[in-house]
TrEMBL record:
Protein name: Putative ABC transporter ATP-binding protein YxlF
Record EC number: 3.6.3.-
Annotated SUPFAM superfamilies: P-loop containing nucleoside triphosphate hydrolases (SSF52540)
Gene Ontology molecular function: any one: ATP hydrolysis activity
Residue span(s) of domain ABC transporter: 3-216
InterPro entries xref list: ABC_transporter-like_ATP-bd (IPR003439), ABC_Transporter_VariousFunc (IPR051782), P-loop_NTPase (IPR027417)
Transmembrane segments: none
Keywords, ordered alphabetically: ATP-binding, Hydrolase, Nucleotide-binding, Transport
Matches recorded under Gene3D superfamilies: P-loop containing nucleotide triphosphate hydrolases (3.40.50.300)
Record organism: Streptomyces hundungensis
Source domain of life: Bacteria
Amino acid sequence: MGRRYSIGGPWVLRGIDLELPEAALVRVGGPNGAGKSTLLRLITGTDAPTEGRVTGRPRTAYVPERFPAALPFTAAGYLTHLGRVHGLSRRAAEERAGHWLERFGAAAHADTGLAELSKGTSQKVAVAQALLAAPELLVLDEAWTGLDTAARAELDRAVRERVTAGATVVFVDHDPARLAGHEDARYTVAGAGLHPAPLSGDPKPSGALVLLDITGTGPLPPQLPGSPQELSWSDGSRTLSVAAEHSDDLLRALLAARPPWHIRGVRPA
Ligand SMILES: Nc1ncnc2c1ncn2[C@@H]1O[C@H](COP(=O)(O)OP(=O)(O)OP(=O)(O)O)[C@@H](O)[C@H]1O
């Protein structure tokens, strides 16, 4: 699928082909403005792709980057209301609301209006609303930001519980250590494409290097797969060196970049 925000405008994402397995924790990384939030909105169905489509309809919950806090509810009232929307009885919805506020250390604010909550407590409510309905697909866009240490650890635990229960959790977080060692897949958004990235526990590259001779204009896209080294640079021509196992992903990223890079040659180092 692909997404651009205006006709004739730049493609924020293009050629995205992603399958999300069950019972999996999936991290999406990439620099500011690369299109991570756009991708998460497409995955949740809160935004539609400009081309291509998203298939499958798991029960989905989403913590967006910006939570709309100014709704006329108390924290507990809001969570109970959402529980009812998800089909729970009033009593079950109240119980779940209380349970999640308690777990995130926000029980004292159950009767506070959403508009009066501090930023951090409001974020706790945002996270609680997503966990409340035991979603099959949980999508977290920097959901840890603003939470205190205890709540961040609690969210880590809640995420692992969801995955153990068979759910798919897709998350973006700027802390590279977040849930490290628990991820099943990692992707980087760069140059409008989505690129598989090595997991923290993956074996180190075997040592074989590949050289790529490329030409193009402007700087190289950030966070290229395999973190290639630039060996030479003149008049827009460059030679990159990368571990052999990353060369296919690197070629794809260079070709998908906007503007694309031209590949003049690929050779063993
Ligand atoms: N609703 C929108 N209308 C127009 N352009 C948008 C819209 N949402 C995002 N964009 C543009 O799409 C690009 C990707 O934005 P997005 O928020 O998806 O990036 P991101 O990787 O999540 O960034 P960050 O790490 O800063 O949150 C940016 O250039 C942004 O300006």
